[in-house]
């Protein structure tokens, strides 16, 4: 019980460090990388206060150095999943009754640990697990993760402050209860910050979590759990169960106390999970909340008035940063014929200048793609493009998986706006360009709007204000995050709340109060001060 109203600290985005040659942060992260590379670990299951190392283990390797082992992680059996749910439910009552200021302090402390003593660890583990170069690791694992935690505390305080009007003789209160049950969190490989936030956001609102991380993020998932533990997240509030996603999901989604799914990953997986939840509806005590952010086929549309260097940079960064493995990565590009050659030459020159290799070498802009399946899938599309007559490989098209899963950034030009790589999410460094006649820009906007099933991110680049206004209206539903004169990636917490609709997800905007609202079930409490004692209306004699 607190006899005060807690004022949340005003959040500020965590400054991005530069890791220049000779800087202390560069030395610290490289030392930590080396230490982690040479000291294999076992990642346990985190169930209540227990850390369980199972008999069955799976290997962890850096995607850029797949013959090297970073250690192993534990594979949960059915009993572990049931134990994790039980551990979550056991602490549920105590956690949701913990005052907001204490829940907030735990996650504010986690943010300060990330920005401070754990910065090198969370970055180095992300460089190793997901093959991010230091810049990409820093903006994700350190900055975005700390931002999520700090901004969410402020958003939660604002939500709690929203109260109903008072009436004569009554007082009204809205209590933002946690959901009645546990939240099942399933996370993707590509952002350490997303993995952490998917657990932390519902936990901040008083929920308890069973977390199934991606097999390909386990090495950095361990650092997230270390941080939560040191920050004081009580045992059982966030439980980690790794292993077979189908086995784990079958148990979580058939439990009567399943109260919500917080998912980020691919579209097909999300659709199947939704279907499964629908089929089990009679099992649950409540209608579960379903939040899912999924795939994208994100576009850049340049108008004939576009500034050419802006387009070149937007395609280069938006398409190839982190090997195109951001859900927001630009992968279909529409260029007007009058300026297309100059833009394409510029992108080709940039791609030629990319250095490719391990993230340990900080000159590398491009590192490896996440795993062999992804590598093989990308190779399949690249080889098909070499054979197809309606597409031309402008640069790239080579690959090598002998040491790491390296796919050379590839630029395709197609005469077919419905060519497969204009429609399918490849999740790799392959960008496809379609040229349109300058005068056909309106028709081409319609093409942008209707080509893909997704609606995640997109960008228009132009100087003509009339065009900008028209295109913004025509593409209203084509992207949940819409960018003008920029690349379609790089959302910053608190500034560009993130998510898309159509097949891209439920658009509950991670890094905003909209997401937090999904993890509460409000109770209205009306108290009558001097209750009526006579049923008759005044109009009655
Ligand atoms: P993925 O779908 O392969 O895996 C995501 C998670 O789902 C993992 O934890 C995985 O183990 C689990 N999973 C896989 N099959 C499952 C099943 N049958 N049942 C239950 N869980 C299952 O995705 P990924 O490769 O890790 O991540 C890339 C995808 O995520 C891309 O499609 C990308 O666009 C999307 N993504 C979207 C956003 C967004 O905000 N919209 C952000 C990041 C990534």
How is this structure best described in words?
It is built from 16 helices and 23 strands. It is of the alpha/beta class and 541 residues long. The strands form seven sheets. It has a seven-stranded mixed beta sheet, with helices on both faces. The protein starts with 23 loop residues before the first helix and ends in a 13-residue tail after the last strand. 40% of the residues lie in helices and 20% in strands. The site of nicotinamide-adenine-dinucleotide (NAD) has 32 residues, from helix 8 and helix 9.
As an assembly, this protein is single chain
Low-pLDDT runs of 5+ residues are none
CATH structural class of the largest domain: Alpha Beta
Number of strands: 23
Query: What Rg is obtained from the alpha carbons, in whole angstroms?
Result: 25 Å
CATH architecture of the largest domain: 3-Layer(aba) Sandwich
Helix/strand-derived category reads alpha/beta
Kindly report how far apart the N and C termini lie: 48 Å
Name the CATH superfamily classification of the largest domain: Aldehyde Dehydrogenase, Chain A, domain 1
Would you tell me which CATH topology of the largest domain applies?
Answer: Aldehyde Dehydrogenase, Chain A, domain 1
Q: In total, how many domains does the architecture comprise? A: 2
Beta content comes to 15-25%
What ions, cofactors and ligands are bound?
nicotinamide-adenine-dinucleotide
């Amino acid at each position: 019980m607190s006899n005060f109203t807690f004022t949340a600290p005003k959040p500020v985005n965590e400054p991005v460090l530069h890791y220049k040659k000779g800087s202390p942060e560069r030395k610290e992260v490289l030392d930590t990388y080396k230490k982690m590379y040479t000291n294999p670990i076992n990642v346990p299951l985190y169930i209540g206060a227990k850390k369980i190392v199972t008999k069955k283990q799976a290997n962890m390797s850096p995607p850029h150095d797949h013959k090297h082992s970073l250690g192993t992680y534990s594979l949960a059996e059915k009993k572990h999943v049931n134990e994790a749910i039980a551990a979550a439910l056991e602490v549920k009552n105590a956690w949701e009754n913990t005052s907001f200021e204490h829940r907030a302090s735990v996650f504010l402390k986690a943010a300060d640990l990330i920005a401070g003593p754990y910065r090198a660890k969370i970055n180095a583990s992300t460089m190793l697990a997901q093959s991010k170069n230091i810049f990409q690791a820093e903006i994700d694992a350190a900055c975005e993760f700390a931002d999520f935690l700090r901004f969410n505390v402020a958003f939660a305080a604002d939500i709690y402050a929203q109260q109903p009007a008072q009436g004569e003789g009554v007082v009204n209160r809205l209590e933002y209860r946690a959901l009645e049950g546990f939240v099942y969190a399933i996370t993707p490989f590509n952002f350490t910050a997303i993995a952490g936030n998917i657990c932390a956001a519902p936990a901040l609102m008083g929920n308890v979590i069973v977390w199934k991380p991606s097999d390909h993020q386990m090495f950095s998932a361990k650092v997230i759990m270390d941080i939560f533990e040191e920050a004081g997240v009580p045992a059982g509030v966030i439980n980690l169960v790794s292993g077979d996603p189908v086995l784990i999901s079958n148990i979580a989604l058939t439990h009567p106390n399943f109260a919500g799914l917080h998912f980020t990953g691919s579209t097909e997986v999300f659709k199947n999970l939704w279907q499964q939840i629908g089929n089990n509806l009679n099992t649950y005590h409540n209608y579960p909340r379903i939040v899912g952010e999924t795939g994208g086929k994100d576009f850049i549309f340049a108008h004939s008035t576009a500034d050419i260097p802006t387009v070149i940079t937007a395609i280069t960064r938006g398409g190839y940063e982190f090997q195109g493995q951001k859900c927001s990565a630009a992968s279909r590009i529409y260029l007007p014929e009058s300026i297309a050659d100059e833009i394409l030459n510029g992108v080709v020159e940039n791609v030629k200048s990319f250095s490719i290799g391990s993230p340990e070498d900080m000159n590398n802009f491009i590192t490896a793609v996440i795993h062999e399946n992804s590598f093989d899938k990308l190779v399949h599309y690249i080889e098909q493009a070499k054979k197809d007559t309606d597409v031309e490989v402008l640069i790239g098209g080579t690959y090598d998986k002998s040491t790491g899963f390296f796919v050379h950034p590839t630029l395709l030009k197609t005469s077919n706006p419905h060519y497969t790589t204009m429609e399918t999410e490849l999740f790799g460094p392959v960008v496809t360009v379609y040229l349109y006649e300058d005068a056909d820009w309106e028709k081409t906007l319609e093409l942008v709007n209707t080509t893909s099933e997704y609606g995640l991110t997109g960008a228009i680049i132009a100087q003509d204000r009339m065009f900008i206004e028209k295109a913004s209206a025509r593409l209203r539903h084509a992207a949940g995050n819409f960018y003008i004169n920029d690349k379609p990636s790089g959302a910053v917490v608190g500034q560009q709340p993130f998510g898309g609709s159509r097949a891209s997800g439920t658009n509950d905007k991670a890094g905003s109060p909209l997401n937090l609202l999904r993890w509460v079930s409000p109770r209205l409490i009306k108290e009558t001060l001097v209750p009526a004692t006579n049923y008759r209306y005044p109009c009655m004699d």
